[in-house]
Amino acid sequence: MLLDTYLDFRDALRDMAQNSEAPAGLAQRWQTIRQLRREYFGEEEAAVLFGTSEQVITVDLERRRIHLDTSLSSEDKFLQLQALSEALPPAIRAARQRANAPARNRAAVIALRQQGADDEEIFALRASDFGDAAAQRLATLDRQQDEWRQRLVDYHTARDELLNKPNSAFASATALATLRSLHFNDEYERRRVRALDKAPP
Fold this sequence. Notes:
Shape: elongated
Structural class: mainly alpha
Number of domains: 2
Radius of gyration: 28 Å
Oligomer: single chain
Distance between the termini: 66 Å
Helix content: over 70%
C-alpha cells in the first residue's frame, strides 16, 4: 500500500538524518533524498507525488549557487536568475511574483524618487501594480510619514535649543515632556520619541 511505502520512506529519511555519514552539502543531500524517493516509489510515482516540489527545490538550489558564485557579475547573476525563474511551474511562479510585488514596487519607488519623480508619477506606478485604492492608501501613508519626520526634526531642534541654554543642567524631565506634548499628538508617538531620545547617537 502507498501509505506503508510512505511510512517506510519516512523512516529511511529519519535514519539518513541520524546517520553521521549522511551527505552534508545541500545539493548532495537533496540528490540523496531524490534518489531515495525513487527507490521506494519508482520513477513515475515519485514524479506524481513529488514532481512539483522537486522542481521548485532544484530551481532554488540553483538560485543559491548563482548568488554564491563570485565569478559572475551582477548583470550575469540577474540574467541567470531571471531565466531560472521561468523554469518554475506557472502557478508557483505566479505566487512568487505576487509575494515579491511589494518589495519590487518599493525598490522602483525609491529609484523613481532618486530620479526626481513627483507624487503623480509615484501614484501611477503604484496604481499599475496594486490598483488605485491601494495607491491612494500608500500616498496617505507617505504624507503621514513625511509629517512625522518633519515634526521629529522640529522637536529635535527645540530640544537641542533647550539643552544648550546656559541653565541646560536644570532642563528637567518635565520640561522635555512638555516639549514632546507640543510636537506629538498621542502617547504612542511620545513613547517613540522618548525611546529615540534614550538611544545612543
